[in-house]
Amino acid sequence: MTAVDERGVAEFFEGFEPPDGLKVELLRGEIVMMASPDLLHNLNVLLTERQIPLDRWYPLQTQDIDIVDEASEPVPDLVVVARDALPASGRLMPCSLITMVVEVVSKTSVQRDYDVKRSIYAAGNVPAYLIVDPIMAQCVLLTRPKGEGEHADYQRQQITKFGAPLPLEELGLELDTSQFGTFPNARPHRYP
């Protein structure tokens, strides 16, 4: 897809009104629509959000992100921003203000969460990307972003099984994963 095409898609996306009950993201010039998340998904987001101290951070749900030099406007399950970095308003949160994004894997989002969004968030230089995976009962913490565009990636990857504590150095806390739920009878995947 050419840069002109991506700009056109981005302009279209700006005014697009999705049908009720659908989550919509722009990922590298592609409009991706998903059904509303599963209850287990929402509970894992809630259990993560509740552990982030509001005296220092704002954990925000359904916040669109502006990734510089990308035809992408992802909507992570959770965006963590320092309280003093939060802008007064706006639909798009500049990626330069974000400390961490969280994606909870669903049965249909595995490839997007582990592959596409990994390079998008790294290209946006988001310091930490946490993948909570109820299919594999693990968290994958990605840090130290490097590179540009589709070649961007995180230089450090830490896998923590549900039940073990997960240090989140970027936030200065340890995440308790013992209450995170898993999808029953889910087919394992090959990621990360």
TrEMBL record:
PANTHER family: SLL1072 PROTEIN, SLR1083 PROTEIN. Signal peptide: none annotated. This is Uma2 family endonuclease. Keywords: Endonuclease, Hydrolase, Nuclease. Residues 17-176 form the Putative restriction endonuclease domain. One of its GO terms (molecular function) is endonuclease activity. InterPro entries: Nuclease_put_TT1808, Restrct_endonuc-II-like, Uma2.
